Amino acid sequence: RNYYGGNWASFSFSGLLSWIKENQEKTDTSDDCEDWRKLILENEEVISLSKKDKTIQHVEDFCFGDQDSAEDVEEAGALPKLPIFGASGAEGVAQELEKECPPMESALPEAESQEPEKATGTKPASAMEGNDTEITSKNESCHSTALGESALELGKTEAAPSEISAQEPKKITYSQIVREGRRFNIDLVSKLLYSRGLLIDLLIKSNVSRYAEFKNATRILAFREGKVEQVPCSRADVFNSRQLAMVEKRMLMKFLTFCLDYEQHPDEYQDYENSTFAQFLRTRKLTPSLQHFILHSIAMVSETDCSTLEGLQATKKFLQCLGRYGNTPFLFPLYGQGEIPQCFCRMCAVFGGIYCLRHSVQCLVVDKESGRCKAIVDHFGQRISANYFIVEDSYLSENICTNVCYRQISRAVLITDQSVLNTDSEQQVSILTVPPVDLGKPAVCVIELCSSTMTCMKDTYLVHLTCPSAKTAREDLEPVVQKLFNLNTEKETENEELEKPRVLWAVYFNMRDSSGVDKNLYDGLPSNVYVCSGPDSALGNDCAVKQAETIFQEMFPTEEFCPPPPNPEDIIYDEDEIAPEESGFSNSPETKPEPSTEESSSGGSTAVKKEDNEE
């Protein structure tokens, strides 16, 4: 591939258009080297790898905004890029080298050069105007944060109420979206980070957090009786809520307090262990609205498939993550989820690892006697030997995966002109769970991102919809889109539709979920070849972290997984060791534009790092 992260990647708008075109055409990759088989010896055999990525299906994109001509429009401030094959039209022009248009923003400095600033207490440029919070590993000792008693106080400054919110949203055209394409960082997979989840712990422990910044998810929403409303989840939110009666507030606090230490009170739930969590909630003297909030917006579990214990565990996890960095349990990485794999790539590069883009592999070379993989042959006809091989599931050919039954994820990405729930502050990061209309079907997770997350242009919102697939992505998700948004491009629309956010552009696609596949189901794989999956449908990242650690421990059982890196001044190089900077490979991910003053001042960012005095 010509981008980092596989199906975990993030794209600018023009990059996503090229990705869409590539997946709609599904062209076969031809062999650059015809005589690579001459490299295979008599006592060796090959396992051919797939030449086509079949993890993405049913890609459909739609433009609902004013479709003015965008053929001659270029991305403002685009950095020089190698051409992406298959791009044409608006997307092709937007990727050409910029000769006349000056950059809109200076690029971020290299992550290594930011360290002295952080050490002296100065804020990085991308968050200079925001309310910064640093994530440390010291506040683990504070267990009283679960209901909003935050160990870290976020800045109280709110963005000034927008004068535009009471008026009609600004009219955004398609050519504007293309021109501001580098302002978009659109994730293929939509996830949030639990503030006490495995990935946050790993980022802190490994010090990879130095390369990333995060923004708090500011609100949890619910969709009930055709309306979107905010869910009170912290202690302060519950008692400040106007939508709950005083009796309901007491009910909710009593139940949430019970969930925090439910293991200590088995007599209260053991009679319902074989029941669903929804049935258990009905026995707790909770009003229908409270049951809805707990089931769909706090526990975020299925009404029909989730057991009582699973629901209590999910609710406890939610509550334990509250208050660590804000009034919700979630963080979102600035510039998108695709920054996370790039951060790990950068740390790897600092210590000599090499990440090669546009470098495909023809086959694995297996020794017939030992049955172990000895080498790979790349598309240049070059043979590369190694002791261990890690292969992402999508690279395996069909004859290896004949016994594997994959699940699918339905995804949609929308660019809209306003939020699903307007408030005084435009800069909101929201998560909304839309329950299914029919029992037995999956709920749809909606994550709405504002421009201060550095994922979309000013005056727009980026909305991600995700659910396990039942049909094609459009069939699964379009009914939810129609409930929440206005898809009508005509000027004359009903008043009810005018109140909804207008969709400017949308894409639907299905993504393979290869998580949870047993390695024994893959036919004929050598013991030293390890398979990792693509993204799963869960909201968090625990599955990926567990899988990475499991594979690492199988290869190196005596080594520590992602240990804290040594300080640069403590590293002693061998005389014959070549410093990573002297190699001819460029490992650094593409730099991103800095946030504008308006964007950075309207929402606080969060830097994940350890205390300076902590080893």
Automatic annotation (TrEMBL):
A molecular-function term among this protein's GO annotations: GDP-dissociation inhibitor activity
Alphabetical keyword list: Cytoplasm, GTPase activation
Pfam families tied to this protein: RAE1_2_domI_C
Domain of life: Eukaryota
Localization annotation: Cytoplasm, Cytosol
Acidic residues: bias regions: 571-580
GO biological process: one example: vesicle-mediated transport
Classification via Gene3D superfamilies: FAD/NAD(P)-binding domain, Guanine Nucleotide Dissociation Inhibitor, domain 1, Guanine Nucleotide Dissociation Inhibitor, domain 2
Cellular-component GO terms for this entry: cytosol; nucleus; Rab-protein geranylgeranyltransferase complex
Domain RAE1/2: start-end pairs: 409-537
Region described as Disordered: 101-141, 560-615
Family to which the UniProt record says this protein belongs: Belongs to the Rab GDI family.
Protein name in UniProt: Rab proteins geranylgeranyltransferase component A 2
Organism, as annotated: Eudyptula minor (Little blue penguin)
